[in-house]
Amino acid sequence: MRIGLLSFGAAEFATLRETCEAAGHDVAVYGYSRSMRPRTPTDEGAVGAMGRIAAALPAGTDLLLPGSSEGLGAALRGYELDLVVCYGFSWRLPRSVLDIPRHGVLNVHSSVLPKYRGPAPVLWAIRNGDPHLGLTVHRMNEEFDARPVLAQEDGIPIPEDVTPEVLWSGLSPVLRRLLATALDRVRDPAAGEPQADEGASYAGLLEPEFSAVDPAWTARQVHDQVRTFRFIGPGRGPVATVAGRRLKVLRTSLAPADGLRLDCADGPVWIAESEPAPANG
Fold first, then answer.
1. Domain residues of the chain, as ranges?
2. What is this structure's pTM?
3. Burial class of 2 by CB neighbour count within 10 A (0 to 12, 13 to 18, 19+)
């Protein structure tokens, strides 16, 4: 098959490509969404990601940086693709794009669907204190993560001090296995197990209020809130007021540790790393 890839990072593109090529397929094009939504300005940090993707781009493979869904569709039509594989692409794809590849679009989703449908499954798994994560490869339509499943696996550990790099080391081998299975099945239009509605949940983008620590929460909830921000990126953390000081909380401990003590609904959490929060933060 002739395949196009839609993803978000150099390592992710490379893993998808290597898996497709190991299964005997040809990857013709990469597509990267440089903004969270079509027709919006390029996101902060996207320029660096584009540079890393371009530096690792294999010879003979094109890189698309679309500004709109219409532009993405117009470009993809020219590649005469049999399949598109999507993993972490920021935009919801319209029917006009989904119908372009002969065998449709496969999506790689970081949960055991139907749990955590939506754009932020990993963030919600960390936020909820889940001990492990799953991965699903499913057929794609305009709904969020609701089409039949071609391959699925649970049990990928979420470390206590979780970062994208650490989590990727556990995710990537599972992704290779599941995508290889899905590629074997995708040309059969009847292949795939329908998702049950029972157990379905939605993992949307984090609400603005989540950026503030609420001492009415349990210590575990606050700790997982801080872990979620640490996963998003270095120097990210929710804001707490402790002893009259506004702090950006970068790391916490549920066990006694050096640092400020924050009393929560059921006991304390210790702020092991912080910095002053901006007055308008």
1. 2-107+138-185, 208-276
2. 0.94
3. middle
